Amino acid sequence: MLSRSVARTLSSQSRLFSSSATRQTKVAVLGAGGGIGQPLSLLLKSDPLVTSLSLYDIRGAPGVAADVSHIDTASEVNGYAADQLDQALDGVKVVVIPAGVPRKPGMTRDDLFNTNASIVRDLATAVARVAPTAHILVISNPVNSTVPIVASTLDKAGVFDPAHLFGVTTLDVVRAARFLAGISNANPRDTPVTVIGGHSGATIVPLLSQSSYGKAVTGEAYEKIVHRIQFGGDEVVKAKDGAGSATLSMAYAGAKFTNALLRGLNGQKGVITPTFVKSPLFAAQGIDFFSSNVELGVNGVEKIHPIGPISAEEQKLLDACLPELKKNIEKGKAFVA
């Protein structure tokens, strides 16, 4: 029932562009055999804007491909083994990267850096070689560092296009809407929250004051929901008791952002969502990647929106975010250098 419900959601989002789905929109998932990659592949198979799905991993991707290929949607699915990365990337328009190791209890996203940084760098190198004009969506944590790693890798290869690189911070947005709806006795569709900054802990800054429901939350309730949005991933890691991290919700968020990008690429106007991109908003402070509302279009990033008016509490959160985010970005750049 869950997959049918999600499929209906994706279908309704894409209805205006269902005729565009006949265009060749090939999407690759790098890390398709993992805890995020498998449900993400399922959800993308359900998206009518995906006409071809290319699944790659160092193990398990052909099996995942065989499994989801039986689903009765029009997209074609192919799976690729460890030595077939170039074939997996051939002709791809959008590359989604959930590859890497998951968090375990007691681990922060930065604890993942040493392993995931190398994985992401090597995948980005292959994209630069085989599909240099593809749009790249980075899920692998720590996103604050892995996105700069991808950017620097592409730049060294001479193919970096800032309009084509995205850090997927959608899970923070999804959580914010869900948590705000929970304390407001509302439907999450009515409680959207813009989340800016980065994608870990204190770098996550929810702008509740810009929401009609959120601005009513004050005092202890405000502090609790902000903490839950910033550290919601810890809830899942603890609840899974060593068996994984936020894989299902992250797969949903990844599919949701991919669908938004595909709608923009297909020409839909007004597709605006937070995402972590190369940004001028705080470049003067040495922070050249930042998540804010971004308008998606036929070229990828069409417009980076300013953060708008924020409350005194949110300014404090932003002040705490910026130095930590700068450190994360520099760590990613230094890894490639």
TrEMBL record:
Catalytic activity as recorded in UniProt: (S)-malate + NAD(+) = oxaloacetate + NADH + H(+)
Protein name as annotated: Malate dehydrogenase
Residues where NAD(+) binds: G31, A32, G33, G34, G35, I36, G37, D57, N116, I139, S140, N141, M250
Binding sites annotated in the UniProt record for substrate: R103, R109, N141, R175
Organism field: Piloderma croceum (strain F 1598)
Similarity annotation: Belongs to the LDH/MDH superfamily. MDH type 1 family.
Species classification: Eukaryota, Fungi, Dikarya, Basidiomycota, Agaricomycotina
Assigned GO CC terms: mitochondrion
UniProt cross-references to CDD domains, sorted A to Z: MDH_glyoxysomal_mitochondrial
Source species, domain of life: Eukaryota
Protein's UniProt keywords contain Metal-binding: no
InterPro entries (alphabetical): L-lactate/malate_DH, Lactate/malate_DH_C, Lactate/malate_DH_N, Lactate_DH/Glyco_Ohase_4_C, Malate_DH_AS, Malate_DH_type1, NAD(P)-bd_dom_sf
GO molecular function terms noted in the UniProt entry: L-malate dehydrogenase (NAD+) activity
Domain Lactate/malate dehydrogenase C-terminal span(s) in chain numbering: 169-336
Subunit structure, interactors included: Homodimer.
Domain Lactate/malate dehydrogenase N-terminal: from-to ranges: 25-167
